[in-house]
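chain below, 185 aa
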Amino acid sequence: MKKAIFLDRDGTINFDSEKYIRTLQDFRLFPYTAEALEKFYKAGFELIIITNQSGIGRGYFSEEIFHQMNHLMLGELAKRNVRILDIRFCPHLPESQCDCRKPKPSHVLQAAWDHDIDLSQSWFIGDSQKDIQTGYNARCKTALVLSGIRKIDPETIAGWGIRPDLIEMNLLTAAETIINLEKNQ
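prediction:
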């Protein structure tokens, strides 16, 4: 079985916005994203994106625009020979109670099944409590990155029922730490 890095998108891989990432012009990777994902990829991790995109359900942007953003991202990452194995998304509103919306782990579990991923050797990285809950619910190790638009302080994290295994400033520092942890196991 393979190991994977499951990634939230907005706030983890790319800049986020309180008003949602609605257009191709709004979509911008963090300057360190390609380097971080290249490190994971070279360390033998499969890369899978799991993202809630309720902006589709709210009518802020279309599913077609969402796919164009992903195409743009994949093109940028390909320049570094980084391949994203899969992208799974939930287009529904939070109140829809669907099975595919994080923190429910259905997308992670299905991707693991489809791609022969060992969840116990995998990580879920995101910028919110919901991402940490998703990883925990899927029985992955978890890393919280502080690069999102919500400022999360230690007191807030201490109040969470489920805490991340790792807290890092951004995806690049998370990649460096996780790869070092893997080497020392």
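The beta strands are 3-7, 45-52, 86-90, 123-126, 141-145, 166-168. The longest strand covers residues 45-52.
thats it, cya
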